[in-house]
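Memo to structure team: turn this sequence into structure tokens by end of day. - J.P.
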Amino acid sequence: MFQFKQFSVQQDKTAMKVGTDGVLLGSWAPIYHNPFSILDIGAGTGIIALMLAQRTHAEQIDALEIDEDAYEQAVDNFENSPWSDRLFCFHAGLDEFIEEPEDEYDLIVSNPPFYSEDYKTDNEQRDLARFQDAMPFEELVEAADLFLSENGIFAVILPFKEEANFISLAKESELYPVKITRVKGTPTSTIKRSLLAFSRNENPEIEIDELTIEIDRHVYTPEYIELTKDFYLKF
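Reply from structure team:
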């Protein structure tokens, strides 16, 4: 179990454990537009949806998870949280969900699987969670375009090497970056991740910054502590 300040996440049933990527996106996703409805695509344990339930007053927070074990885990985590009345998980793939669009969402978030290389491991569950072919970026952008409300925000975390490709994909669907944060582990390491937020309105002044997580092993930067202090017990 992973204990946060206001909720806990059970992760014994699923191959994808609570990780920095999910915590980053859950802490960072822009909410200045006071989203009424939120969609988390590829929920895993449900951590991002739970973080957004804590951060916002959104009345409707839906999550989507294809893997049965992860889906059951997310449902349990939602039910055991203080916000169980606002959280709902669908057991479906994105392709099924797209077929029956019923709602629009003011905030769409995804920590998508992103190993697009050709190899796979012996753990099918982990592969499903980690490999991009389970949820191609094209499909993710298509879903965001379909479900995003007029003034909504679409936020993702990706490997830095995929940033330019994803931005051009989004542009084809007339989704434009409003904020980009590039993340590296330590001051001397290379940039590993990109946090990207998109809207339907083309923004001439994109907010771009960098975030370093640690100064030294388990010595966190003031910026990372500030971003995640409402969640981590140790901060």
